[in-house]
Amino acid sequence: MGSVLVADPDGQIASAAIVAGNGARQQMHRIPGGMFAAVPRIEGEIEVSCRDGSTARGGYVTPHMDARAKVTGPCRLVTR
To answer: For the chain, which residues make up each domain, given as ranges?
Structure first.
């Protein structure tokens, strides 16, 4: 199935989504432990909107593949 997990250890993220090149969006869900998660239905990249109003994008997401990322510093998305 594949999954996308974004760690938010400092609680910076207001929302997270997978965003496709054509503009389609799939919202990610906040789960306990400072994480956002989704089972990807679209191909694209991770986008996080932080509480300070900034956004960050990165990584590659596609169905049937696992992707991991972490938000550090001032709303910086680091993919693994």
So the answer is: 4-70
CA atoms within a 13 Å half-sphere pointing along the CA-CB vector of 56:
21
pTM of the model: 0.93
Rounded CA-CA distance 23/39 in Å is 18
How far apart are the C-alpha atoms of 2 and 80, rounded to whole Å? Answer: 15
pLDDT tens per residue across span 45-64: 999 999 999 999 999 999 99
Q: Where are the beta strands (DSSP E) in 1-80?
A: 4-7, 13-19, 25-27, 29-31, 35-38, 44-50, 55-61, 67-72, 76-79
